[in-house]
Amino acid sequence: MLEHGGRLGRAVREYGIPREAWLDLSTGVSPHVWPVPPIPPAAWHRLPEDDDALSESARAYYGVRHVLPVAGSQAAIAALPRLRGRSRVAVVEPGYAEHAHAWRQAGHDVTTLPMDGLLARADEFDVVVLIRPNNPTGDGADIASLLALQAGREPVGAATAAPTERAWLIVDEAFIDTRPEQSLAPYVREGIVVLRSVGKFFGLAGARAGFVVAWPGLLDALAEALGPWTLTGPTRHVVAQALSDRAWHASARAWLCEASSRLANLLTRHGLSPAGGCEFFHYCVHAEARALQHALATQAILVRHFDNPQALRFGLPGDDEAFARLDRALAAVLA
Amino acid sequence: MLEHGGRLGRAVREYGIPREAWLDLSTGVSPHVWPVPPIPPAAWHRLPEDDDALSESARAYYGVRHVLPVAGSQAAIAALPRLRGRSRVAVVEPGYAEHAHAWRQAGHDVTTLPMDGLLARADEFDVVVLIRPNNPTGDGADIASLLALQAGREPVGAATAAPTERAWLIVDEAFIDTRPEQSLAPYVREGIVVLRSVGKFFGLAGARAGFVVAWPGLLDALAEALGPWTLTGPTRHVVAQALSDRAWHASARAWLCEASSRLANLLTRHGLSPAGGCEFFHYCVHAEARALQHALATQAILVRHFDNPQALRFGLPGDDEAFARLDRALAAVLA
Fold first, then answer.
1. Which of A75, A101, A127, B229 is the most buried (most CB within 10 A)?
2. Alpha-carbon distance B3 to A317, whole Å?
3. Among A82, A91, A136, residue whose Cα is nearest residue A111
C-alpha cells in the first residue's frame, strides 16, 4: 500500500494525542462539506440499481453525454491499466502516486516525467497520464494544448486499433471543480479519459465516489471489468443530490477560493511561500519539511510530507479558529 | 454484465407498474433488516481509515483471527482470479454465476461441475470454487468432508509453492449466517479461502460489504490488489455495529428459519415443492418457470428465473401481508 494523507488514527497513536484534539490538514478534501440529509432506509437494504438518478445528475454536472460512476477515482485508476495489453506509459511526477503504481502493478513499462517533459514527449508513449491541477504541485495544462497534443498522438494507435488499444490521454481532474470551465470533460473523444472526484469538492471523501468521462466503448469495457454494484446505495442517493445542488456549488466555489488565498497569505507570512497548489491545498518546498511536519504534529496539526523534493502540503483550515490555530503553531515551530 | 435479481427499475418499466406496488422476491436478501441508526457526519466527510472498529467486530462475529473487509463479496470474487497465474479451475454449477465469469475473464481454464462431481474430482484442479449453502439450489458439503478434500489436494501445490500458487479451495458462504456452527471460517488454513457476505443476513445489500477469511499471505496480496479505501465510511460504521449486535443476530436467525419454513409450506401447497433452498430463499424446478415468472410479474411480484433446468427462486416475503399476497397470486396464476 502506498502512503496517503488522512491517517489520523495512526497519528493519534504515534503522538498520544486524542483524536478530537487534532486539526487534520493532511488531505486535499474540502472542509466546507455538502450537508448530508438522512438516508432513506431502502438505500441501505436493497441492492443498488444503476438506472437510478445518479447518471443523469452526473451528466448535467459534468456537462457530458457519457459518464460512468465508480467507487472513487481510485477504482478507475486501478482498473484502467488492466484494459490494455503491455504498453509504454508516461505518468507525471511528482503527482498522485497511485497512477504509476497501478500501471506498474499491471505489468506496463512506466516512465515518470515532470509535467513539461511529459507534454513534450507525449508521442513516444501509448498512454499518457497527467493530473490537473496537479497534486501536490498545482501545475496544469490548458485545454487547447491537451487537445493538440492528443491529435498529434493519433498515429501511435493505428486507425484500425480497438478502442482499448489506441493512444490514451488520461487526465485526472480530482481538484478542478472550482474551475469547471477548465475541465477537459466536455471535450472528451475517443482516446481521452477524464477522471473526476466527488470526495474533494463536496467534502464527501467517505462516500467513495468518482466518475469516468470517456467514449462509450471504453466505459463499457470499464463497467464490465468493475462488475455489478460498485457504489453503495447510500452513496448513490447522496451523490445524486449533491451533484444537483447548484446553489451549494456556487457557494462552495466562493468559499474554497477565499480560504485558499487566505491560507497562501498565512503560509507566506511565515516564510513558507507556496511553490504551488490550488483551491484545495498549498504545496511548500522546504529543506526541513520532515522536521516541520513532526513539530506541527506535536501541536496536534497533521500535514502531509513529500520527499523529492522535501515539501509539505497544507489542506484548508475549516474556520477562523482553525486558521488561528495554524497561525499560532507555525509561529511557535518556526520561531 | 451477468443477469441478477433485484432489478426492480427494469420491472417497473417493463410492466408499467409503479415501484411502490411491487413485492420484490427476486433476491436472497433478508427482508428482516438490521435497523440502521443515523450516521455520524464524519463518516461521510473523512477518508475511511482501516484501523477503525470494523476488523475487530468482524474477527469476533466470524470467530477468526485474520479477516479482510471488502466492498461486497463480489469485489473478492472479481479480484481473487487475478492473484494467480493461469490455472485449472472448477466451479460449482448451477451456482452464483459471477464465480465462473470472473475466473474466465482472468484467462483461467474453467470447468463447471455439479456439486458431487466437483467434490469427487477436486484433485484434478488447482482451484475449486463452491458455494454452501449453494445459490440457488441450497446444496452443501460438511466441514469434515471439505477439510479432508483439501488435505488430499495438497500435493497439487508443491510445498515450496508461493501462497498464491498452491491448491486453493474457495468457499462462498454468503447464506450461512443462520447456521454459524457450519461455517468453514474458523477452520481456515493455508489454501482455504472463505467468503462471507453482510448483505443477505443483515438485509444490508446496499452497503456493499463482505469479508474474506484466509491465511495472512493471501489477505495481504488481496488488500494490495484492491487498493486503499474500498469500503465507504458510512458502511464501515454501520457494519461494525451490525456485526456486534448479538441480540439482533439471534432474533434474525429465528425470524429467517420461521419465514423460510412458512414459505416452503406455502409453495408446496401450490404444487411448487422446493427442490432446494435455505433460510433465505427456495428453489423450485418447474417446466413453465419462465411463464410463471411473467404471470407473477403481471401481479407485481418479482421472482428470479433460471435456465438449465427451468426454475424459479423465491426470496422471503417480509410480513403476513406479503405472504398473503404471494398466496393469492400463486392461486391465481396456477389456477
1. A75
2. 47
3. A91
B53 touches chain A (CB under 8 A): no
Helix, strand or coil, per DSSP, at residue B287: coil
| pLDDT tens per residue, range B26-82 | 999 999 999 999 999 999 999 999 889 999 999 999 999 999 999 999 999 999 999
What is the Cα–Cα distance from B285 to B318, expressed in whole angstroms? 23
Domain layout of chain A by residue ranges: 8-33+247-333, 47-244
B16-42 pLDDT, tens digit per residue, is 999 999 999 999 999 999 999 999 999
Rounded to two decimals, what is the model's pTM? 0.95
Rounded CA-CA distance A75/B226 in Å is 8
- Cell numbers for B53: 472498529
CATH class of A47-244: alpha beta
Question: A-chain residues within 8 Å CB-CB of B29?
Answer: 45-47
Closest to A34 (Cα-Cα) out of A235, A173, A172, A261? A235
Contact residues, chain B, for A203 at CB < 8 Å? 45
ipTM (interface pTM): 0.95
Output the pLDDT for position B65.
97
What is the crossing angle of helices A54-62 and A233-244, to 10°? 40
**SS3 for chain A, per residue?**
CCCCCCCHHHHHHHHCCCHHHCEECCCCCCCCCCCCCCCCHHHHHCCCCCCCCHHHHHHHHHCCCCEEEECCHHHHHHHHHHHCCCCEEEEECCCCCHHHHHHHHCCCEEEEECHHHHHHCHHHCCEEEEECCCCCCCCCCCHHHHHHHHHHHHHHCCCCCCCCCCCEEEEECCCCCCCHHHCCHHHCCCCEEEEEECCCCCCCHHHCCEEEECCHHHHHHHHHHHCCCCCCHHHHHHHHHHHHCHHHHHHHHHHHHHHHHHHHHHHHHCCCCCCEEECCEEEEECCCHHHHHHHHHHCCEECEEECCCCEEEEECCCCHHHHHHHHHHHHHHCC
Instruction: State the smallest CA–CA distance between residue B33 and chain A in angstroms.
Output: 7
CA distances from B24 to B153, B295, B311 (A): 42, 14, 17
Taking 70 as the pLDDT cut, the residues of chain A under it are: 154-164
Helix (H, G, I), strand (E, B) or coil at B49: coil
CA trace torsion A286, A291, A295, A300 (10° rounding): 80
Q: How far is A164 from chain B (nearest CA, A)?
A: 16
| Cell of residue B233, nine digits | 465510511
Residue from A23, A82, A232, A237 to probe the interface with B (highest B Cβ count within 10 Å): A232
Of B4, B9, B223, the CB nearest to A228: B4
Distances (CA, A) of A18 to A21, A167, A254, A303, A323: 6, 50, 33, 17, 20
Q: What is the pLDDT of residues B250-260, one digit of tens each?
A: 999 999 999 99
CB neighbourhood size of A252 (10 A)? 22
User: B212 with B17: CB under 8 angstroms?
Assistant: no
Question: How far is the CA of A240 from the CAs of A37, A60, A65, B219, in angstroms?
Answer: 12, 11, 16, 34
Count of CB atoms situated within 10 Å of the CB of B85: 10
A258 contact partners, CB below 8 Å, separation of at least 6: none
The CATH code of domain A8-33+247-333 reads: 3.90.1150.10
Which of B82, B205, B234 shows the shortest C-beta gap to A206? B234
A17, A204 Cβ separation under 8 angstroms = no
